[in-house]
Amino acid sequence: MIKILHLTFILMSVVSFVGRVxxxxxxxxxxxxxxxxxxPHIIDSALLLSGIALVFxxxxxSTEHGWIIAKLCALVVYIGLSIVxxxxxxxxxxxxxxxxxxxxAYIGIVAVTKNPLFFL
Length: 120
What we know:
Blueprint: H1 2-26, H2 34-57, H3 66-87, H4 90-113
Helix pairs in contact: 1-2, 3-4
């Protein structure tokens, strides 16, 4: 059950992020509405809490956990790039957006393979 919730929050988080980027390009005034300011934080908090619950449920802290640390590091980079995306325009925004999506893909692949160096 927690895994399904976690996957749902992942989907909601990515859709929310991409949607806010599109809205910021097409109708930036909408982003000033309370819903667009609060909802992403609620979704991402639920995502993080469900991830923590999965770590404890799966007892992954009792085994090799390098892949979890890799995911957390990539998450920090993703958050930083997401901030750059939402605060900038032009080429900087789109480079940061590409980087954020690469981080997201990396996190997903590491979650499935449990191998932070899957590309080697």
